[in-house]
Every structure is written in structure tokens, then in C-alpha cells.
Amino acid sequence: MPIKIGSVLSCAPEAIVVMVDGLEIFEKNKEGLQVGRFLKIAQGNLDFTIATIRNIKGTNNLGLDGSPLWSFQIECQAIGTLVEDKTFDRGSLLLPVPTEHAFIAEADTLDKIFSADGEHDFPLGKLSMNKTIDLMIDGNRFFSKHIAVVGSTGSGKSCTVASVLQSVVGISQNKNKNKNTRNNSHVLIFDIHDEYTAAFTLLKEESFTLSRLDIDSLQLPYWLMNSEELESMFIESNEANSHNQVSQFKHAVVLNKEKHNPKITEVTYDTPAYFSIDEVYRYIENLNREVIGRLNGEDKPKLADGRLVTDRKIYFDKIHDFVPNSTAKESKATSGPFNGEFNRFVSRLEAKLADKRLRFLLNAKKPDGQPHVTEDFEALMKQFIGYLDLANVTIVDLSGVPFEVLSITVSLISRLVFDFCFHYSKLQHAQGKLNDIPVMLVCEEAHNYVPRNDHAAYRASRKSIERIAKEGRKYGLSLMVVSQRPSEVSETIFAQCSNFMSLRLTNDADQSYVRRLFPDNANAITEILPNLAPGECVVVGDAVLLPAVIKMPLPVPEPHSQSVKVHKEWREPWRDVVFAQVIERWRK
């Protein structure tokens, strides 16, 4: 039987106040009357309102004999209805009237609220208030809509993400549950600090395949970029003649794509087809040197040997010498339309092409040493969704990617995955089906490449990820956005998230920002954000029956995100370091 603890004193949509029956009842049931616990309040029929305790107030007055008379009021927030004491309905919020009896929600009631059913079939973690009960969530609603995971440094974000993803792909306690089979999950992780490789690396006999792409193994040739990405990489938008740079660069790229891809009927600036960036560089350099012959019947670019250029396509082959400018009647020649205009543009192209750090983009080679061509597009695409080596998890290690191309790298990969899901979905829709190979994109440390401010350096990545946030769900592409500074991440992305997992947040700005993102009926639970233990998190959203505080299980194996035990290390005897090894790696 549920334990009656008092009666309703007043009720309003935002708060129900329950008067406890006295000091004795309160003392007996203190454990069940803590902030965050649940009450079950009669509605005068067979239904009960379920409410979560927000705060407890006790007052005492002196009795006639001088002893204190205590009275207690519990303020709670209604979160749903237990229909006929059997099934929980989050949508129904019929409020109880004053004098109705209030009870502590016993284990049987909690089981009904949190139990697995046909839809709520994915165990996320153990309820903090009752460690024996799993919080079961609707797996379809959780993974098919976007997820936000936030929490300060050291709160357990990486472990939480690893724990959720390990459950999805079948890893538990260093074992692969799908050893002789492989499920159809596809997870792509943008890993800024190379933390997650450890969490998905099992012993060989477990036969779990992880696809890990780092700056040495990532195949990402520049010709996969669209117009926006190419321009953000090669053109400074704040230069006075940037419009000329854009128009001539575009013209050169399209011409070069046509030259190298005669079989493609309609080549555009955005077509993912091979072109030679070296040839485009030579074309721009020739435009920058161009001199037009002005003798009768000429009016065309004139080379040093006197030949007239009838087709500028020859500019791709080599850097030519032109006749000198002249006002003399017999050798009249004037500067071409772009002569001297592209000095900065050319030197920037030259510097980028010579930068060895950008070789994974500008000088990507196949294992046989040949450059990637248009026919390799299929293999390039397969690496991102695990189809090259049949891997459920693909980790893109961004730790070695130079800062100035981080945004373009993220933008390019996420856009390619989005475009693949879009076109595959359209093929499926034509047959009356939906995308049957959905993909999840995990953006670790998202504030690094999708910031709130509209900085030009992050425009490409921000635009690509925001597009996925707004449209990806329709095409089977969902996002998991992970950040320790939620207030610094693009608002558009968080606004599209339907499920939130918030670990401990100590920063005021982040706390208030997350409170605004949470639905109204979860406001009370956000007060606990600064006091959560490592690994504890508040879960709210579409997939969860009601907001809850849960303890996430530790993933095994763990990601490499543990803090160094500084004090312990400092007490150890002095250690020698082989500096040569560090410096050798540094130089590489």
C-alpha cells in the first residue's frame, strides 16, 4: 500500500503544494521526501497525478506547553498522470484539487513509470534516486532526432557519449556482443582530441572493426569541395578585388573539370569531379601576367614569341611569358584585364600548395602514389560511413588537422555524408521506402567548429552542421552535439535538438542557457545542474517519459579522457624524459 503523507493545500499549473500530516509522518518518510523524488496524488477517481518534489519548507510555532509544533509544506510540479494506477501518460496533466490525498510513489509506481514497453526499449542508465531501476527511453525517438550532451570539463561527457554508443554497436565490458554478426548501425565521430579510439578498440578475438581516419589515412581530395568551401580556403573575402578572384577562380575550376571529365555532360562548379589545382594555379598566374596585343587585328593575349592566344585553355599547361607593355606603334601592347590584380591571390595559392600540413587535402594520394580521380568517388564516400572495412564506428581524428582548415574539413565530411543520405533517401522514397541505413554524426567539442558567433573562419562548418540540424532528420541523418560550453555553440543547432543530456555545469552562463533550452516541465530539475556527481546527468526530451536524473554506467573500455592525477604524480620520484622522441614527433 502507498504511504499517505498529507493532502493537497493548493494547486496551480506551475506548482502543487502538499501539507504534510505532521512531524511524525515527515520523520518516518524523510527518505522518500527529498527534492527530485516523486509523489502520487489522488485525483478523486482511479487516476493519480505524478509530481516531482521541487522544494520542502518547514515552519515551527510554540505549542501551549512550550514545545515546538512543526508543519511542513512540499512544493511539487506535476509531470503526468498514472491512468487507473496502471499506465503513465506524460501528456495528461489534470491537476488534483485541495484536500486530495498525497502518497509517496512506491517502487511499484516507479516501475510503471520507467518500465520498458514496446517503445521505451533502450536502457540509458540507472535512476539516481533508485539505483535498481533503469531509465528506459524510446530508442527511435532518441536516435532519430538530434541529441545534445553538455557538461563542464571532468563531468563525464566523453564517458557518457562512449557508453551510449557502445550500447548501440554492441560493446559491453570489453566484449563484442555481435561477434559473429554485425548490426546496421553507422556512427561517425568528429574527435578533436583523439579520445574515442580507446573506447572502441577491442582485442583481436572480439572481431570488432573500428575505422579510424587521421591526417595520414584520411582521403579527402580538394576536388570534393563545393564552391563555398573552395572559396573559403583560397580566397580572402575582405580583399578589394575578391569578386574578381571568385569569378576567375570559378571559371578556371569549371573549365578544368570539363577538360578532365569529358564523359560528364554537365559539369558545374559544385560537381564532385576531379580537377587539377596546380593547373588552376597556372591559369590564374597567367591571367595575372597577361598582356593584350593592340596591333591591327590582334586584341588578344600575346605571348613573348609573338603567338596570339585564341583559347585560354593553354594557360593550364604552363606559366607563359607575354610581350612587354608598349606604346610604340610597331609593338603596341597593354595590360590584360587582370594583370597585376592577382598578386596576393597567386602568392596565397602558391603558399597553400607548398604547405605540407595540407597534403591530406591538396596532395591526397592513393596507396599506389597516384592522385584520386573522379572514378574514386565511391571509395572516398565509403570511408565515412564504414563501408570500406565494414565498421559500425568511424572516428575522424581531427587532432592533427591544422587549425585554419579545421572548419573546411568538418564542413566537407559532414556535407558529403548529408548529400549521400539525401540522395539515398530519394532513391528509397521512389520505391515507397525510407532510408534504411541511417547515420549518426557525433560532434565532439562542437564549440570549436560550430560557434555561436558568425566568424568567417567557421562559416563553412557552421553552415554544413546547421543544415544537418535543420534537415538531416528527414533523410536519416541525426546529430549528437557534445560541448562543455553550450552557450558558445550555434543556437540554431541546439534549437533543433529534441533530447538533452546535461551533466554537471558550473558556469552561470551555461546553466541559464541550458535552462532556457529545457521544456517547461523540466525547469525544477535544472536547479540540480551545478551539484551533479561525475557521470550523473539530467535527461529530458522526446524520448524520455519524464525528466530524470540518472547515473550513467562507465564504458568499458573507457575513452582517453581521464584527467592526469597531478598531486599523485608530483609525489613520485623525479622521472627522466627522452626529449628526442618528443621532438621527433613534434617535427612530424
CATH architecture of the largest domain: 3-Layer(aba) Sandwich
CATH class assignment of the largest domain: Alpha Beta
Low-confidence stretches: none
- The named CATH superfamily of the largest domain: P-loop containing nucleotide triphosphate hydrolases
Largest sheet: 11 strands, mixed
Whole-number tally of structural domains: 3
Q: Which shape, going by the Cα principal axes?
A: elongated
- According to CATH, the fold-level topology of the largest domain is Rossmann fold
Amount of beta strand: 15-25%
Which percent bin holds the helix content?
Answer: 25-40%
- Which strand order does the major sheet show? 9-8-23-22-21-10-20-19-13-18-14
* Strand element count: 23
Helical run tally: 16
Indicate the structural class: alpha+beta
What number is the mean pLDDT?
A: 88
The end-to-end span amounts to 70 Å
Rg over CA atoms: 32 Å
Question: What's the helix and strand layout?
Answer:
Blueprint: E1 4-12, E2 15-20, H1 23-28, E3 38-42, E4 48-62, E5 68-83, E6 87-89, E7 101-104, H2 107-114, E8 120-127, E9 130-138, H3 139-144, E10 146-150, H4 157-169, E11 171-172, E12 175-176, E13 187-191, E14 210-213, H5 227-234, H6 242-260, H7 277-289, E15 291-293, E16 300-301, E17 333-335, H8 343-354, H9 359-362, H10 377-382, E18 393-397, H11 403-430, E19 439-443, H12 459-471, E20 477-483, H13 491-495, E21 497-502, H14 508-517, E22 536-541, E23 548-551, H15 566-570, H16 579-587
Parallel strand pairs: 10-20, 10-21, 13-18, 13-19, 14-18, 19-20
Antiparallel strand pairs: 1-2, 1-7, 2-5, 3-4, 3-7, 4-5, 5-6, 8-9, 8-23, 11-12, 15-16, 15-17, 21-22, 22-23
Helix pairs in contact: 6-7, 7-8, 11-12
